[in-house]
Amino acid sequence: MPERTVLVVLFDGVQSLDVTGPLEVFTGAAKAAGAPSAYTVRTAALGGEPVRTSSGLTVVPDLALADAPRPHTLVVPGGEGTRGPDDRLVAWLRAHGPGAARLVSVCTGALLLAEAGLLDGRRATTHWSVCEHFARAYPRIDVDPDPIYVRDGRVSTSAGVTAGIDLALALVEEDLGRDVALTVARHLVVFLRRPGNQAQFSAQLAAQTARRDPLREVQHWVTEHPGADLSVEALAGRAALSPRHFARAFRAETGTTPGRYVERVRLEHARRLLEDTADAVAHVSRSCGYGTPEAMRRAFLKSLGVGPAEYRRRFRTAPHS
């Protein structure tokens, strides 16, 4: 089994979970595989001095960046320290990033890679709150604000904080197989290894909460009754509005159309049933309002890139005793 050196870059103002999340995944995977050399995880900082994380935790790196070996996987975490990075850190990334077999950023670590010119011409993501700034500041990067991680060749970028765990698990599955990745996920009590193209937000979080009670009540009703008639006409009736007025008001107050909101709610409900139950796909499709398994399959392929059966195979949570 090849030995892979994973080097995690540290700096003042780093987000601690951006560091420890992937670190726990990679070290746990080596143990789960029964091959301690599968991953050798090291941390490094400029000068090798301790760094203070954004939450106040002090972390002592293994070594100085100048002394770091050429890594197989270079992990660049995010945090407040990415807002005004040390020029020496950016220069080190610019010089050494191209030499890594895999280049990975967590959260706003993507800003450091972008500043070093390592994301030019690539598709990338980062924490939702900085995606707009990211796209404006680095127009040569194709910024996708929706998925929890994006893989573009040897370069992978993830969304905020815990998304780094999902990305690290995907890399472990690629290296060591699905069983090892699932073992690590269960050990970390990560009940669902989310696919990369899953949205950063659930439908309820992605959409704003409507200001007016009738519209807000419709939002809640949709979430609780995904298998019901959720046409614009039916929802407008519940809000005591005309379909045209309802559709216009819903979009103005939530930032999305009624149809798009219903699509996301149904997809999330179907995913949860496939992950947590043994219900037949046909039953899931009916209970989520798709009507037919084929309609649900098309929705899954459009949003997640896999059909319901394959999604269940990959992501169903194992029964717990």
Show the helix and strand layout:
Elements: E1 4-10, H1 16-32, E2 39-45, E3 51-52, E4 58-59, E5 63-64, E6 73-76, H2 87-96, E7 102-105, H3 109-115, E8 123-124, H4 131-137, E9 142-143, E10 149-152, E11 155-158, H5 163-176, H6 178-187, H7 203-206, H8 213-224, H9 232-239, H10 243-254, H11 258-276, H12 281-287, H13 293-304, H14 308-315
Parallel strand pairs: 1-2, 1-6, 2-5, 6-7, 7-11, 8-9
Antiparallel strand pairs: 3-4, 10-11
Radius of gyration: 22 Å
**Number of H- or I-type helical stretches:** 14
Let me know the largest β-sheet.
7 strands, mixed
Low-confidence stretches: none
Oligomer: single chain
Termini separation = 33 Å
User: How many β-strand runs?
Assistant: 11
Which geometry do the CA atoms define? Answer: globular
**Strand portion, in percent?**
5-15%
Order of helices and strands: EHEEEEEHEHEHEEEHHHHHHHHHH
Query: Helix proportion of residues, in percent?
Result: 40-55%
Please provide a written account of the structure.
With 321 residues, the chain is α/β, with parallel strands linked by helices. It contains 14 helices and eleven strands. It has helices spanning 16-32, 87-96, 109-115, 131-137, 163-176, 178-187, 203-206, 213-224, 232-239, 243-254, 258-276, 281-287, 293-304, 308-315; strands at residues 4-10, 39-45, 51-52, 58-59, 63-64, 73-76, 102-105, 123-124, 142-143, 149-152, 155-158. A seven-stranded mixed sheet has the order 5-2-1-6-7-11-10, sandwiched between helices. A two-stranded antiparallel sheet has the order 3-4. The protein has a two-stranded parallel ribbon with strand order 8-9. The longest helix has 19 residues, at 258-276. The protein starts with a strand and ends in a 6-residue tail after the last helix. The model has no long low-confidence stretch (mean pLDDT 89).
